[in-house]
Amino acid sequence: MKIAILSRNKKLYSTRRLVEEAKERGHEVTVIDVLRCYMNITSMRPSIHYRGETLEHFDAVIPRIGASVTFYGTAVLRQFEMMGTYPLNESVAITRSRDKLRSLQLLARKGIGLPVTGFANSPDDIEDLIAQVGGAPLVIKLLEGTQGIGVVLAETHKAAESVIQAFMGLNAEIMVQEFIKEAGGSDIRCFVIGEKVVAAMKRQGAEGEFRSNLHRGGTASLVRITPEERSTAVRAARAMGLNVCGVDILRSNHGPVVMEVNSSPGLEGIENASNKNVAGEIITFIEKNSEPNKTRTRGKG
Predict the structure, then answer these.
(1) Which of 133, 208, 123, 114 is nearest to 163 (CA)?
(2) How would you list the strands of the sheet with 219-222, edge to edge?
(3) pLDDT confidence band for 172 (50 / 70 / 90)
(4) Cα–Cα distance measured from residue 67 to residue 129, given in angstroms and rounded to the nearest whole number
């Protein structure tokens, strides 16, 4: 098979591992910087050009699109889909998962456990918004934030008011969520491939830090998940339409709640914590499932 990996940096751990596993299985792999692609959008012969050359046909494409380049990256991925290339994750599903508010609404529609979440536009509604999520302490999140950036824990009612007013004053889109104190600054990353959780790890925030992101000094360890957590992760992936994703779950007093579904999860933390060949399982999934023109959404939102 000819496989394209959309990644801005071929030296990243996740990209290197995918290349290694694909080559080991005898596939031809090309790493493509998505921002250097440009497209000829036509109904007859859509094409993608890269560094002055026209890209030849690929059997499958693995999108490793960073959050900061979602718009352009998914446009390039759509072009691959138009050309009949099998996408590991479809462009529509990635766009869905990157919109924090939309993704929560889709998960809620499927009855998946979530932290109580509020969203408002007017400063006049701040009091009601705080009350809706159970009051302080509460978590305020920028809709555009990634890797824990733009996430604030407001420990008092006054602090919550001030932070929300400040964000609204900057015309920043935010949502407000209940604080799951019993999680103790930890979450569980379930790595889903197809209809199966292939690995899971517990991420624990640094001392005094309520965010568990590994980029923020968190640590990862092997964890045994419950059948309910396993089911929640698989249902969340299905709701997003993602074949491969990381589902971040908090253990709350009212069961597992989904914090986020990550359409481009890193492999280093999960492989080291679980000692499993996750990259190899991704390539195996592509081998079993890739077919020309196999795009379920067919351009639907």
Answers:
(1) 123
(2) 219-222, 196-204, 186-193, 244-252, 255-262
(3) confident
(4) 28
Query: CATH assignment of 182-263, given 3.90.550.10, 3.30.470.20, 1.10.15.40, 3.40.1170.20?
Result: 3.30.470.20
Mean of pLDDT over the chain: 90
pLDDT for residue 118: 93
Q: What is the pLDDT of residues 51-87, one digit of tens each?
A: 999 998 899 999 999 988 999 999 999 999 999 999 9
Please give the pLDDT value at position 30. Answer: 97
As a whole number of angstroms, the distance between CA 56 and CA 49 comes to: 9
Burial of 50: CB neighbours in 10 Å, binned 0-12, 13-18, 19+: middle
Range with the poorest average pLDDT among 30-34, 38-42, 196-200: 38-42
Q: CATH: 3.40.190.150, 3.30.200.20, 3.40.50.20, 3.40.50.11270. Which one for 2-89? A: 3.40.50.20
